[in-house]
Design goal:
Chain B: Its cofactor is FAD. The complex is a heterodimer of chains A (613) and B (515). Chain A is 36% helix and 22% strand. In chain A, helix 2 packs across helix 4 and helix 9 packs across helix 10. Chain A is built from 20 helices and 26 strands. In chain A, the strands form six sheets. In chain A, strands 5, 6, 7, 8, 9, 10 and 21 form a seven-stranded mixed sheet that branches. In chain A, strands 12-19-13-14-15 form a five-stranded parallel sheet. A five-stranded antiparallel sheet of chain A has the order 22-23-26-25-24, with helices on both faces. The N terminus of chain B is likely disordered. The radius of gyration of chain B is 25 Å and the shape is globular. Chain B contains 15 helices and 22 strands. Classes of the chains: A alpha/beta (613), B alpha/beta (515).
Chain lengths: 613, 515
């Protein structure tokens, strides 16, 4: 069934890899158009006996077919390749009925015998659902609900595998249960601790020693999360989305096996699938880690105060957790292998770290743990940690009540049967590559959220991607998710908000000589009377000199950084320039107004410390 | 006071003649400046410093006439001394009180009733303000701006006479003169005891002792902000409103602001106007007021009565007529053109004293800087007074930029305006079990695609921080579609702006459910 070599050569002739991949993308679209646009679409070869049988079958049923004979078109070989990418089937005939992939000759005859083919031809769904979403996190739920609103029959499969420490939770995914929500609430608890200290300077009078009760806080936070879990259940019910608390695993094309807590298995079929399984914290793979360490999966519902804590890692999760634990009065050490906040602007990252250090968090740099040993059981117990230097010989050891691992997260993509239907994953990272419409290599399977390769691991991104995906699939809309200039905030003790490029990335993309960086230190008014650090909060914008000083990177380190950054992100969507910043009037007295009066460039080397006001 | 003012007036007549005779001497002498700025507030100082940096010989004259209660302060004007800075700090003190009440929900073992010490707060706030006064002095010195602590009035169109506290006079002449004298609180003129017993925002921030049970008269943002922080500090505060709160602001937002205050302990006497203030033997103040609807009179006792019924421009003692500078017959503010010039081309007015300008620090600062640059031939950019963002620091903060809903409808017609809105619950409120009934966002847009944003109104914590960036968006000509394409920052209050989906026209419930 191979094509004549001459034709193959001609097809790949249009030069570079890039343009051929573009041609391929075009071809893919053309094929999808044929599949979408015809009641019965048969890709066949004129001399193939199996193809002939299928054509005869449809003709006996009196059904008109659209047929593409691959051996009679110039790009037949490419068509066959792209078809195999779309359907994971290399051979012809390759048959689609009412946009549903039937398979080859055998499968079509089977479907005819079982009555599925007739159902499909009548336009009835051959599947239980229009859409099954695997994973009930932010992205999955948003997608499922939007699809349901558009009138589709939708199921959500969600199942939380307990952490090695046995922690599990309800519907809503990472953000709600073990991410954004509890971490911001614990961060808020820590900020309130600071507010208590400040308040004395503002005239409030009480006993100097205020203790913090971990259990009270955790219970209140868990109650709130419980209400959110319940809210999601309710919301799915209202929108008539079927929610099944089972673990989903593909068993064959369009078919998924759902296993519940008791081990009972049920299979469901759907025309389309969205994978939104997210990620879970990574373990070190050293002696004692799974037995004795906790992760962010466990921390927020920990029934006892963690006590003296070692946080391993320097991701934003690590620094946020270390920050609020220290803010609650605990003895906290962060063990960092190399750099802080990889991927973020490194100047900002270092400032985040140095503020934490000034406020009592200890940093052990260039060390990695090699062994965790339990010295004492208890709540908390006592753990001995041995760590080795990354720079040569030398080991340290320490005793902690709790060791929290925050060294990264792994995609939940390896145990959901993707190999059964041929969905490709990046073998190294476990992430799923998708095209610009969140489609995997298997056309009816889509993926959103943290498991996407090269995309941001953020709740609002997943929600937006999920909603827009549902609208494209079922609402006739075309809008794609825009992954450019996504704002985010790290809720460290001193919050860090950013949008656009880091300085390093900007230099890489635009070259240093084309950039102008404006920056300043500032002192929030609320900090003055409170006697808090002057010349610590910092604002920075990175502008492209040769594009009208367009702002390509926005960075702020200060209180309420998230609240400040959001509006500037909207302005960046509208093409923010330095001139527009200068023309905008500040709101006095706020921290945000600092961006309307930025005058000093980094290149000038001028002093940015604030003396007067 | 009127008599006291007449005497220097006579002297001016003589001075004018003397000055005319020695014009050459004045122009070449020590007292001749390229630029003279009258008023050392935000606008004046910004203008003076900018001009000096651009190489001009600049002088600033500033003089604080003590309030009727005798309160006085240093360099920096209203914002620094009796406005933005102390009010935001006292607002912060009140917010901290709220945080102390939140803290137990988050596990902090705080005693149930925490008292507040006004003296300690006031001292800390005042010390900060004094440090700012000092900072302003140093900055002027650094930039070689001559500073005179004298009360100025015009002698002629190029000359100003300044009088020190001790009555010593100085004559200053300049090529360009900028008037930036700002405004002062208004006292009611026909209410017995008002001047004698009442205080204003000029005094409240400098009180050494707690004002105690306070009646705030007026419903300007100053009135609501003061009543708000007094309540937050645990005091009994009542606001007496004649007609509507926050005139000029979006009225739906205004009523939410007062609704929140009322539900958090501030009392409101609506449709009432005071008629008399008297002192009782025990030192308390007895206020008599009238309910405008029923005509019924009522009486109450208070420790403090705070007038916040508006402000008057500081133009009366300037003898503008000597220079030929025209003022608005009603407002008494100085008439200016787009380049801030008055009826006399080389005399300018910026900030609160200029007619039709927003009474806000940042526009005054920017107008001052831009004016200085134009005077020095550095640029020809005019100040753009459209879409000035602002924030009212009431207990629940209200930030806005652009048009109110009423104004948008008036300008474009109801059928051309689309309003997107939502109630939301800040995450921090949940665990603290705070009521979020008034946390509300409204975006006023044109109805025709791409639905240009005309105004944004945000009611909630950190409203100023939230509003600032969006003000830029509006400056950039943001459309509803662009704001919706902006991804949120989770979990913040600001992200709710990027999630506005429900139009008022649809009649759908704007209460947020779920996440």
């Amino acid at each position: 069934m191979s094509s004549p070599p001459g034709r193959r050569a001609r097809l790949s002739s249009p030069g570079t890899g890039r343009s051929s991949s573009e041609t391929r993308e075009e071809l893919r679209r053309r094929l999808l158009g044929l599949i979408e646009g015809n009641r019965v679409m048969i890709f066949s070869k004129s001399y193939c006996p199996h193809s002939t049988r299928v054509k005869e079958l449809f003709s006996s049923l009196g059904v008109e077919c659209h047929i593409l004979e691959l051996d009679q078109v110039d790009d037949g070989a490419s068509v066959q390749e792209v078809l195999s990418e779309i359907t994971n089937q290399r051979t012809v005939p390759n048959i689609f009925v009412n946009k549903v992939h039937m398979g080859g000759c055998e499968q079509t005859f089977q479907a005819h015998q079982s009555g599925v083919l007739e159902k499909l031809l009548q336009g009835d769904s051959a599947y239980d659902y229009d859409l099954i979403v695997i994973g009930g996190g932010s992205g999955g739920l948003a997608c499922a609900q939007e699809a349901a609103v558009l009138g589709k029959k939708v199921m959500v499969l969600d199942f939380v595998l307990p952490s090695p420490q046995g922690t599990s939770w309800g519907l809503g995914g990472t953000c709600v249960n073990v991410g954004c929500i509890p971490k911001k609430l614990m961060h808020q608890a820590a900020l309130l601790g600071q507010a208590l200290i400040d308040s004395r300077k503002f005239g409030w009078e009480y006993n100097q020693q205020v203790k913090h009760n971990w259990e009270t806080m955790t219970e209140a936070i868990q109650n709130h999360i419980g209400s959110l879990n319940w809210g999601y259940r309710l919301s799915l019910r209202e929108k008539a989305v079927a929610y099944v608390n089972s673990y989903g695993e593909f068993v064959e094309h369009h078919k998924i096996k759902a296993t519940n807590r008791k081990g009972q298995e049920t299979c469901y079929t759907a025309a389309k699938f969205v994978i939104a399984t997210g990620e879970r914290p990574r373990y070190l793979g050293i002696q004692g880690d799974k037995e004795y360490c906790i992760t962010s999966d466990d921390l927020f519902s920990l029934p006892y105060c963690p006590g003296k804590t070692l946080v391993v890692g320097a991701s934003y999760v690590a620094l946020e957790c270390a920050g609020f634990l220290a803010g609650l009065g605990l003895d906290v050490t962060v063990m960092v292998r190399s750099i802080l906040l990889r991927g973020f602007d490194q100047e900002m990252a270092e400032k985040v770290g140095s503020y934490m250090e000034q406020h009592g968090v200890k940093f052990l740099r260039k060390f990695v743990p090699v062994m965790i040993q339990q010295l004492e059981k208890g709540s908390p117990g006592k753990l001995r940690v041995v760590a080795e230097s990354t720079e040569g010989p030398g080991a340290v050891e320490g005793v902690y009540n709790t060791v929290l691992l925050a060294i990264g997260r792994d995609s939940c993509t390896r145990k959901i049967g993707l190999e059964k239907i041929g969905v490709k994953i990046n073998e190294k990272s476990g992430k799923i590559p998708v095209n610009d419409v969140e489609q995997t290599n298997v056309p009816y399977v889509y993926a959103i959220g943290d498991i996407l390769e090269g995309k941001l691991e953020l709740t609002p991104v997943a929600i937006q991607a999920g909603k827009l995906l549902a609208r494209r699939l079922f609402g006739g809309r075309l809008e794609k998710c825009d992954y450019i200039n996504v704002p985010t905030t790290v809720f460290t003790p001193l919050e860090y908000g950013c949008c656009g490029l880091s300085e390093e990335k900007a230099i890489e993309v635009h070259k240093k000589e084309n950039l102008e960086v404006y920056h300043t230190l500032f002192w929030p008014l609320e900090w003055t009377v409170a006697g808090r650090d002057n010349n610590t909060c910092y604002a920075k914008i990175i502008c492209n000199k040769f594009d009208n000083e367009r702002v390509v990177g926005f960075h702020i380190l200060g209180p309420n950084a998230g609240e400040v950054t959001q509006g500037f992100a909207a302005a960046m969507k509208c093409g923010l320039t330095k001139q527009l910043l200068d023309d905008t009037i500040g709101i006095h007295p706020t921290c945000g107004e600092v961006f309307t009066t930025l005058e000093i460039t980094k290149a000038s080397g001028l002093d940015i410390t604030q003396k007067g006001c | 006071m009127a008599a006291a003012l007449r005497a220097p007036g006579v002297r001016f007549q003589w001075r004018i003649r003397a000055a005319a005779g020695g014009a050459r001497g004045a122009a070449a002498g020590r007292q001749g400046y390229d630029l003279l700025v009258i008023g050392g507030g935000s606008g004046g100082l910004a203008c003076a410093k900018e001009a000096a940096q651009l190489g001009k010989k600049v002088a600033v004259v500033d003089y604080v006439e003590p309030s009727p209660r005798g309160t006085r302060w240093g360099l920096g004007g209203t914002c620094v001394n009796v406005g933005c800075i102390p009010k935001k700090l006292m607002h912060q003190a009140a917010l901290l009180g709220g945080m102390i009440r939140d803290a137990p929900h988050y596990g902090w073992e705080v005693p149930p009733l925490v008292p507040h010490d006004w003296r300690k707060m006031a001292e800390a706030v005042q010390n900060h303000v004094k440090s700012l006064n000092w900072g302003h002095r140093v900055q002027l010195q650094d930039r070689k701006v001559k500073y005179f602590n004298i009360k100025a009035s015009f002698v002629n169109e190029h000359m100003v006479c300044g009088v020190t506290k001790d009555g010593k006079e100085t004559l200053l002449s300049a090529e360009h003169i900028v008037i930036a004298t700002g405004g002062r609180p208004r006292y009611p003129t026909h209410i017995e005891g008002a001047l004698e017993y009442g205080i204003t925002s000029d005094d409240i921030f400098w009180l050494k002792e707690s004002p105690g049970k306070t009646l705030v008269v007026g419903a300007s943002y100053v009135a609501l902000e003061c009543a708000g922080f007094l309540t937050g500090l645990g005091l009994d505060a009542t606001v007496m409103v004649r007609s509507i709160p926050l005139r000029g602001f979006d009225q739906q937002m205004s009523s939410l602001v007062t609704e929140y205050m009322a539900s958090h302990g501030t009392r409101f006497l609506r449709g009432c106007t005071p008629s008399r203030v008297g002192r009782l033997p025990d030192g308390q103040l007895q206020v008599t007021w009238e309910d405008l609807a029923s005509g019924k009179k009522d009486v109450g006792t208070f420790d403090t009565v705070l007038w916040a019924i508006g402000r008057v421009p500081e133009t009366r003692s300037l003898h503008l007529e000597n220079a030929g500078v025209n003022t608005h017959p009603n407002s008494q503010k100085i008439l200016v053109d787009a380049g801030e010039a008055t009826s006399v081309p080389h005399i300018y007015a910026i900030g609160d004293v200029a007619e039709g300008r927003p009474e806000l620090t940042p526009p005054a600062v920017m107008a001052g800087k831009l004016l200085a640059r134009r005077l020095c031939g550095q640029s020809s950019d005019l100040m753009d007074y459209d879409n000035v963002p602002t924030t009212v620091f009431t207990p629940l903060e209200y930030g806005c930029v652009g048009l109110s809903e009423e104004e948008a409808v008036a300008r474009h017609g109801e059928e051309h305006v689309e309003v997107y809105h939502a109630y939301y619950k800040p995450l921090e409120f949940t665990v603290a079990e705070r009521d979020a009934s008034q946390c509300y966002i409204k975006m006023v847009c044109l109805r025709e695609p791409p639905q240009l944003v005309l105004g944004l109104h945000f009611l909630g914590p950190n409203a100023g921080e939230v509003t600032q960036g969006f003000a830029l968006g509006i400056k950039c000509g943001a459309s509803y579609a662009q704001v919706m394409r902006t991804l949120g920052i989770h979990p913040t209050c600001a992200e709710e702006v990027a999630k506005l989906r429900i139009t008022k026209r649809s009649g759908l419930d704007p209460t947020v459910t779920g996440c």
